[in-house]
Amino acid sequence: MQIAMTAAADPGTSADLSDEDIVARVRAGDASLFELIMRRHNQRLYRAARSILRDEAEIEGVLQETYVRAFTHLDQFLGRAQFSTWLTRIAVHEALARRKRRRRVTDLEEIVDKVASPEAGPEDQAFQTELRRIFEVSIDLVPDAYRTVFVLRDIEGLSTAETAASLSIPEETVKTRLHRARRQLRRQLERALGGTVQDVFAFGNERCDRVVAAVLQRVGAR
């Protein structure tokens, strides 16, 4: 089904729509609006997948598969949870399935994007980059189950209930794992916590555009 990119390309007419409104309009045939869903949730899904996998190409594959699966199964979204939670659950399950299929432990990757404030001087930029590197590497050292909960709760800002729904675990388990993750991270991160926490595992610009374009092509909306 080929549908011209119209509404999604005009943020002024669609940016205020809720996820549920967009889903309803996509179901009604305005497939182009699905682009807004992707750009709205790329960051969260990337961080969720990144907490489980460490291969950047495979993580992008998770995002593409998540969006394609969501697009082709929108009729299965019943509104019992927020659409973002439903989407995150799909991404988590896809990432876990890929990790299980690999059946091997990957080496720790230290991927540092040089993203710093353009107003900052060279010393400030170096300091911000080092803080971010310490934070990302420290998170990677946390056991898998705790790390995913930490990323969803403390970095993405999901509630306990949303995290539990995304991971299909009890809320008490979320609380326990989060407490243990924070305890393990406390020493390494006590100097790094602050504004840096919102910058880790950034997903945007070219990578965001690449995932959006690939998904739109796969679902026939471009």
Q: In angstroms, what is the radius of gyration?
A: 18 Å
Average pLDDT metric: 78
Q: What do we call the CATH topology of the largest domain?
A: Rna Polymerase Sigma Factor, Chain: A
**Individual helix count:** 10
**Tally of domains:** 2
CATH class of the largest domain: Mainly Alpha
Overall SS class:
mainly alpha
Q: Based on DSSP secondary structure assignment, what is the total number of beta strands?
A: 0
* Overall shape: globular
Query: CATH architecture of the largest domain, please?
Result: Orthogonal Bundle
Write the layout of secondary structure elements.
Blueprint (H helix, E strand, L loop, with lengths): L10 H4 L4 H9 L6 H17 L5 H17 L10 H20 L19 H19 L3 H12 L4 H8 L3 H19 L15 H14 L4
TL;DR of this structure?
Helix content is 63%, strand content 0%.
General description of the model:
This protein is an all-alpha fold and 222 residues long. It folds into 2 domains: 7-107 and 203-218, Orthogonal Bundle (Rna Polymerase Sigma Factor, Chain: A), CATH 1.10.1740.10; 122-199, Winged helix-like DNA-binding domain superfamily/Winged helix DNA-binding domain (Arc Repressor Mutant, subunit A), CATH 1.10.10.10. The chain has helices at residues 11-14, 19-27, 34-50, 56-72, 83-102, 122-140, 144-155, 160-167, 171-189, 205-218. The longest helix has 20 residues, at 83-102. The relative contact order is 0.15. The model is unreliable at 1-9 and 103-118 (pLDDT under 50).
